[in-house]
Amino acid sequence: MDGELSIKNTRSIARLGATVFADPSLTALEMPRLDGFQLIARIRREATLRGLPIVVLSSRTSQGARDRALAAGANVFLPKSRHRRNLVAAVAACLLQREDGEPPAGESARH
What we know:
Elements: H1 3-15, E1 25-27, H2 36-45, E2 54-58, H3 63-72, E3 76-79, H4 84-100
Helix pairs in contact: 1-2
């Protein structure tokens, strides 16, 4: 999916009145037209979407890509790997954040 379509779909959900999101948004950084960094920044600029947890799954593993994604507003950055446990733990942390209103605790949520 490209980033433009992702933002359009996310806005549609917000128009339905969602303020607490049931699931985190999983995004890549490499997408056509609107990359993941731009997508995250646009989501964070929209008042109705600010509470949406964002998990980045990326083949980019550099510290710079991680720092840039987190600075844009991602809650969690995970390199793409075969370790599904990390993804499950990150999504669980986002869901727990939604329940108690607190961000995921410590570095474990930002692998």
